[in-house]
Amino acid sequence: MAPTTNAVVAVAGWRKSSHSGDEGACVEVAVVPGTVAVRDSKDPHGPLLTFPPSAWTAFAQAPPTR
Q1: What's the rounded Cα separation, in Å, for the pair 44 and 2?
Q2: How far is CA 62 from the centre of its chain?
Q3: What would you report as the CA-atom Rg of the chain, rounded to the nearest whole angstrom?
Q4: What sequence ranges are listed for the domain DUF397 (predicted)?
C-alpha cells in the first residue's frame, strides 16, 4: 500500500525560504513524489498548498514583480 500524501508530507524534508526574514513571515517548501508542498512555518500542522513540479518551477523562475 502506498502512503497517503498527508503521511508523505508529514515526514517531508521542509526547507525555509531564503527570502524569509527574522520577523517570522516564513514560507517552507517540501518536494514529495510528484508534488511540491508549501506551508506557513508558523503553522506547520495547518493547511498547505500543493503544486505540480512544472507549475512550481515556473513560479520560482518568474521575475519578481513590484
Answers
A1: 23
A2: 17
A3: 13
A4: 12-61
Dig out the grid coordinates for 43 from the structure. Answer: 503553522
Tell me what pLDDT residue 14 has: 85
Q: Which residues of 25-34 are buried (b: 16+ CB within 10 A; e: fewer)?
A: eeebbbebee
For the record, the C-alpha cell of 62 comes out as: 518568474
pLDDT tens string for the chain (66 positions)?
A: 344 556 666 667 888 877 666 666 688 899 888 889 998 888 888 888 989 999 999 998 999 887
Is residue 24 a contact partner of residue 17, using CB atoms and an 8 Å limit? no
Q: How many CB atoms lie within 10 A of CB 37?
A: 19
